[in-house]
Write a structure and sequence with these properties.
about 0% strand; 2 helices; mainly alpha; about 120 residues
Length: about 120
Amino acid sequence: MSDIARAQSVATNAQNKIAQLDREINTLTKQVQDHKNNYKELKRQAVKEAVDQDGQLVDAAQVRMKAEKEKMNSYDKKAELKQLKRDKSELESDLKVLNKYLQRATSINASVQSAANTVQGKL
């Protein structure tokens, strides 16, 4: 496999990885939103239970704890999402550089082939 073919293969693999990261980012973004919504709903539920069941504050505290756990899950997903976005950005940057060198290599290869054909034609 020539260096150009190998570089093209690497570029294709990088593009596939970027697409995979995009899918993971979309999934995590949805999960973060779900956690936020769950957190808000659980807080509302905790307030409602505290109001509805004056003597049952333990239940409201349990719901509040669930809400805080949901909030922490959201933070964890946000951190994971941030890292995935960073990884994607680095990969895109590397791919841009690889494509630039690939274009140069292809151009040089074409020039060499042309020169070789010219020389061969004169022989």
